[in-house]
Amino acid sequence: MVRLLGYYGSLQRDIDIMIVADDVKEAIAFSSEHLIPLEEIDLHIYTTNQFLELINLDPFLANVYINGKWLIKRLEVSVDKEAIMKKAKRLYEELCREKKKNTRHCLFLFNF
After folding, report:
1. Residue 14 sits in the same domain as residue 65
2. pTM of the predicted model as reported, rounded to 2 decimal places
């Protein structure tokens, strides 16, 4: 089962797509069914267990690579997971109250 689909970026630069699934084969099948292969797409596939390991690292280490240059390597980011979950829940509830389209996508955050 695909647990999370995240994307960021733009076609002017590049697009990063992250797929988290219970099994790598499921993620690959999902990507070949639903994604159009473009040169500008960077695909990141994680199993649910790998993703949970990554988000539970404290501090989380971030790397920033833009236009062929490493701007930041191994930046330590302290993550307040409780604050993130509270804010995500609050935003989700606000979206539900406003009856916005695609609110169901927020559920992926709580699907683990």
Report:
1. yes
2. 0.50
Share of the chain above pLDDT 90, in %: 2
Residues 11 and 26 in one domain: yes
- Residues 57 and 78: their CA atoms lie apart, in Å, by 9
Whole domain around residue 38: which residue ranges?
Answer: 2-78
The torsion of the CA quartet 66, 56, 43, 2, rounded to 10 degrees, works out to -150
DSSP character at residue 22: S
For residue 18, what is the enclosing H or E element?
strand 15-21
Co-location of 32 and 64 in the same domain:
yes
Backbone angles phi, psi at 34, to 5 degrees: -115, -10
Q: Which pLDDT tens digit goes with each residue over 89-108? A: 787 777 677 665 544 444 43
